[in-house]
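Hi P.,

Sorry for the delay on this. The queue was packed all week, but I finally got your sequence through. Input first:
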Amino acid sequence: MISLALVKNDNTIHSVIAVDDIWENRILDFLLEHKLPYRGIVCRSTDYHGFNCFKHSEKALRKNFPRSNHVYDEATDSFIEKQPTDNASWVFDADGGYWKPPVDRPTQPPGEGMKWAWDEPSVSWIQVPRTTA
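Then the structure:
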């Protein structure tokens, strides 16, 4: 199974379609025949099998599986999340294909009943109470 991302001129994701591997070339031919590139949409293939929901996978084709909040970055040939607006200090990790805080999370465990959370105003990790649901 392969997924094809339809990417608009502004590099935002229009939609993603999944097709069996044997149909990939036929689908690409169909999209080209209907002049999709001339309508401002380009098709980029991606590999769903390389995507891990819980961790960015280095095996993923084009870094990440494309989602509606992603853009296609031509410089790195990858699908990346738009920079988080509530975390303006975060930096883009081009090797991993994701945004990360400019300061690594502390390696020591947080205090009893606490957890580490990113605090944008201080641009640092702080301990906050762990909530129970």
